[in-house]
Amino acid sequence: MPSATTTEGTRVQFATLAAVTVLTGIVSSLGAPLVPTVAREQDVSLATAQWMLTATLLAGAVVTPVLGRLATGRLRRPVLLAGLVAVLCGALLTALPLGIGTMIAGRTLQGVGMALAPLAFAVARDLWSGQELLAKLAALSVASVSSAGLGYPASALVAEHFGIGGAYVFGSILIGATTLLAFRHLPASRDGEPQPIDVVGALLLCTGTLGFLLAVSQGERWGWAELPTLATGLGGVVLLVAWIRWSIIAPRRGRPVLVDLHLAVRPGVRAPNLVTVAVGVSLYGLFTLVVVLVQADGSHGFGLHAGLAASGLVLVPYAIAGIVSNRIALLAARRIGTRPLLPAGCLVFGTALVMLTCWHDTLGQALLAMAVGGLGGGLTFSSMAILIVPNVDTAETGSAMAFNQLLRYLGFSVGSALAVALLQVYGGDAAAFRATGLTMAAICVVAGALASLDRGATARAT
Length: 462
What we know:
The protein is mainly alpha-helical. The chain is 76% helix and 0% strand. It is built from 18 helices and no strands.
């Protein structure tokens, strides 16, 4: 087992952390382009098969803040390793031909992997410092986002040649290799007492998030005005409000809290959190719109009538551009400081949505819009750790980044459901496609404008 960390990490340690963030992103996206195929092969409804994605998002949203608090001090390494093992077990379980219930259970376990990226950020802070730390955090941030874009074409291509089970066997091999790397090279955390867990806060936040995401993900199936949707959605909101109240009152009584809300709204932290939600919504809105566009047959006035592989490959430019934008963000941070990064990222991402809604007659136009979206998304998400980490204490890094990650997953879930809902509300035709994209673009622009007003995000990379 590796010894306690030093102040300087090695290349293999960074490669290990990058593998954790990349693989968890890929695993989180395994299933999205496969849902129609699962529905056909398992002879279930599309709504039932959709839980292959929904269960992962729900598990990730619930587990992220809990692990962020639990994995502090000496527990960080064992918690991260246990999380990787859980993801591996989930991938193997999904690959077994045991029916839709087992597949959904496996996907739920894989959702644990979505909580591991913030822990990788915390490990990086133990290993590096100064400008090198900023560079490593930016690279890990982009890896965690762009890997989801890589996951769509990877899962589609592997499943097309080797079936659904083959896609998860392939994922299991990659996860197993990452687990071995982590066991060998992941350093032990610095000495420190593990932070106590806020059980009440965890239950309120987890159940509230679960209810809210359940309403968002199933609103189309149940009906947005029906009792099940209203009960779960409003019930989730009530529990989240109760969690906010508890998180404010508990510290006054000397009780630990799951997330320090004063930390979450601190100058320099609140703007990244706001933009995370907005761009998260718009990101999965963009993903949903481009997949709908590629697979639509044109009967409603839009569509390219391409297949499963094309709908996965169209996201490759997003992943590549996201990696390129990491270098752009670092250069901009050194030259002009970090404050302009969030507004600029929101503006570029909003531009991608406008491009897709106005010009979508060919696959090339869709590819170009996704490339611009990758630049905006990468510029935005690579800025999160750069802005948040310098504004929080070392002991709170995992908790702060986990909360930001939770907001990201909430945005992803809402964006996926909202895009489909808006398409229906606006009429389901070509005009509805344009209106939905412009609505998503407006969300980005508003968030970018608000972020530009936050005077706390003024740190300059040196």
